[in-house]
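hey so i finally got around to running both of the ones u sent me last week. sorry it took forever, my laptop kept dying halfway thru and i had to restart like 3 times lol. anyway pasting them below in the order u listed, first the sequence line then the structure token line for each. didnt double check formatting much so if smth looks off just lmk and ill redo it

first one:
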Amino acid sequence: MAQVQSFLDSCTIDPSELRFTVNLLSGEEAGIPREWTQFLFRRFNNTYGTAKEKTLGSALEYSWSIPESDVANQVDFLGSLGSLPTHQHGMQPLCVTAHRVIKLIDCKSGVPWPHQDPSSYSHFQVSGYGEALGRSVVYTRISDRSSMNLFLNFPFEPGDPELPIAVKSVQDKLPFSMSKSHWKYWKLTKAGDKYLGRKMTSPLGV
């Protein structure tokens, strides 16, 4: 966590308030027992109110916003459950999440890069998870297998010599390697009403 905080301190500015949730998957077709889901659904619904719902393939995801003061207790409760059911596609059936919006800066000068606001890209959404062009996000999932995901927006054209420099400055501060295969260049269509994403080679090389 100290290395993650070093990345946030060195490469970002104006982070949003952390937003925490508890996420629960249901779906017998996906290998999650109904009784297990019902027990947890009642527990979280009684504590945090009506859940938000989202369809994820053959499963249904329930999500509850929780205050930061409850995070440690919910993580302890998750650990007390022991082994969690195995989802057929490897998704975590129960997790606590932390979500924070960030703005990337030049790690050397401390100056924010331009166009780091969704309004610069007509608030274009790139997925059903609320990810938008111009908005970088750090997303952490705490479960029996925890993970940290980054959705980073670098405001440079492919081939711009500043792009690999900027990406490397971020990579140098991260405690893990960024993916070499999940890079896209988003370009406004001729009609000017949306953006199309095209795969591109990692600025860090193969």
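and the second one:
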Amino acid sequence: MTGERLAGAARDQQQRRSQRTKSFCDSAFETQLLQARKAGADACSASLSAAATLAFATGAPGSAPEP
């Protein structure tokens, strides 16, 4: 191989490596974002459940917040 071909091959290999790293980072970020959204939904669900339980325990089911 000539010097130019070697340089081109090395450049192509570096670009492929960079693309794999980028896709891994994007995937990790998307996973964390999904986990954060799930945690937020779980917290909201738990607070509504606690409010409904409290309302029934105090005998005031009409005061429970609507979802």
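quick thing i noticed on the 2nd:
Residues 43 and 49 are 10 Å apart (CA to CA).
anyway thats it, ttyl
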